[in-house]
Design goal:
Layout (H helix, E strand, L loop, with lengths): L1 H22 L21 H7 L4 E6 L5 E5 L2 H9 L3 E4 L4 H13 L6 E6 L4 E6 L5 H14 L3 E5 L5 E2 L5 E5 L2 E5 L1 E4 L4 E5 L9 E3 L7 E9 L5 E6 L10 E5 L2 E4 L2 E2 L7 E6 L3 E16 L2 E9 L11 E4 L2 E12 L3 E8 H8 L2 E2 L33 E3 L10 H6 L5 H37 L1
Parallel strand pairs: 2-3, 5-6, 17-22
Antiparallel strand pairs: 1-2, 4-5, 4-19, 7-22, 8-9, 10-11, 10-24, 11-14, 12-13, 13-14, 15-16, 16-25, 18-19, 18-21, 19-20, 20-23, 21-22, 22-23
Helix pairs in contact: 1-8
Pfam families: Pro_Al_protease, Trypsin
Family: Belongs to the peptidase S1 family.
GO molecular function, one term: serine-type endopeptidase activity
Length: 447
């Protein structure tokens, strides 16, 4: 009877393991890998690419939602009109603007300064915060004067700093930062956040008592860029991986990834200042933080404060950037910079996890991440489809809870182990019984 029970237990355990493996959730829905190192963002991308950087100087979204393309000649303007966009004649081409930023980058580095190409004014704007001395500002002004009158110098209040300390707070010995977006390599899930939050090896927790571990930083880049990956301790991001929190238990479904457009209305979520909105004012911005220089950033007039660093920037449910730094605050306003998500995904070799549709189906992958043809007019833009926030960070897990989970192979393995032990025990018991019977028979025969 013991042997029969053990064999039955082996069959039952094998069936449980088989069902658990078959029922394991697959990899989360994710948008395709981004492979482009440099993209021309925005609805005017196609016509700008056709005309080239010597005849154009960027594109943006006007207040009425129309696409405007800066061009240097009338023939190019006619091409823009035929493409369904509005042309604006300017003096300086994209080549001129890029040449100016290159010369600024080759000058002596001055912490507290930043520059970006302002497509709408056809200028390169150089900003200096309150920490920049009069001598350093004078020296940088001489460099700008040598480039040309299309370089505009502006003093700004506050201090350009990384916003250390988002949507969901994460803490480590390196400081307090924010979970940006959840991403995956197809095998494991990660948090994409700012690179300045902490070096590789930093361990992150969801609580200030270090009881609920989130994961460990395994890759990143700062300065130069400003992104990093936190590998989840449990391997998976959990329920709600495609949702970003916006406060009061509410969230926004993230359904795709793209590069933003100048003039586009965007939203940023952070644990310090909550959900805020503003406008993209420039692309490919360079900021000289005290820790080092970061280039290729998105510039905006969305406010941010310490505690918002690494948090997500998005619009219409499309992921755009993670908070890097800036100046000012949400009382007086200021300038905030973001690391583009597309570039971080391409460099790290991961994909953005997207949210299922409201009916429970998986969201369809977004098109190539370099275009935002569907960008709404600034006044009509919204954060995206709203939903409740559930499980943005994985629930704490124990060995007992994992073994008790019916989706786990643990219960089946326990049944198999117990059955094997019973089978071995039954064989030992039978052998011992045979030995005792032999001794009794021997004694009775020989007296």
């Amino acid at each position: 009877m013991t042997r029969l029970a053990a064999v039955g237990g082996l069959l039952l355990g094998a069936t449980m393991v088989t069902h658990a493996v078959a029922g394991e959730p697959g990899a989360p829905a994710a948008v395709p890998f981004s492979t482009a190192e440099e993209t021309t963002p925005g609805p005017g991308a196609v016509v700008v690419a056709e005309l080239g950087t010597s005849r154009t100087a960027g594109s943006w979204i006007a207040g009425d939602g129309a696409t405007v393309v800066a061009v240097t000649d009338e023939e190019a303007a006619a091409e823009v009109r035929r493409a369904g966009a509005e042309p604006k004649l300017v003096r300086h081409s994209m080549d001129d603007l890029k040449s100016a930023t290159k010369k600024l980058s080759s000058a002596t580095r001055v912490p507290g300064t930043a520059w970006a190409m302002d497509y709408r004014s056809n200028q390169v704007v150089v900003r200096g915060d309150s920490t920049v001395s009069a001598d350093d500002w004078s020296g940088l002004t001489e460099v700008a004067d040598g480039i040309g009158d299309f370089v505009r110098m502006e003093r700004s209040g506050g201090v350009f700093t990384t916003r250390v300390n988002g949507a969901q707070p994460i803490l480590s010995t390196a400081g307090r930062c924010s979970a940006g977006f959840n991403v995956t390599d197809g095998k494991r899930d990660f948090v994409l956040t700012a690179g300045h939050c902490g070096p590789e090896g930093s361990v992150w927790f969801a609580d200030d008592r270090a009881r609920q571990e989130v994961g460990t930083t395994v890759a990143g880049s700062f300065p130069g860029d400003d992104y990093s990956l936190i590998r989840y301790a449990g391997g998976r991001a959990g329920e709600g991986a495609g949702v970003v929190a916006v406060g009061d238990g509410k969230g926004v479904r993230i359904t795709g990834v793209a590069d933003p457009t100048v003039g586009q209305r965007v939203f940023r979520s952070g644990s310090t200042s909550g959900l805020r909105d503003g406008e993209v004012t420039a692309l490919n911005a360079t900021v000289n933080y005290p820790e080092g220089t970061v280039s290729g950033l998105i510039e905006s007039n969305v406010c941010a404060e310490p505690g918002d660093s690494g948090g997500p920037m998005f619009s219409e449910g499309v992921a755009l950037g993670v908070t890097s730094g800036g100046s000012g605050d949400c009382r007086t306003g200021g300038t905030t910079y973001f690391q583009p998500v597309t570039k971080a995904l391409a460099r790290l070799g991961v994909r953005l996890i997207v949210a299922p549709e409201a009916d429970g189906g998986a969201a369809a992958p977004s098109p190539a991440p370099s275009r935002t043809e569907g960008a709404a007019a600034p006044d009509a833009a919204s954060p995206g489809s709203s939903t409740a926030v559930r499980g943005i960070l994985p629930e704490p897990s124990t060995l007992l809870s994992r073994l008790a989970d019916p989706r786990s192979v643990g219960p089946g393995l326990l049944v198999i182990g117990g059955s094997l032990a019973a089978l071995v025990a039954s064989r030992w018991i039978r052998a011992e019984q045979d030995r005792k019977a032999y001794r009794r028979q021997y004694s009775a025969t020989w007296g």
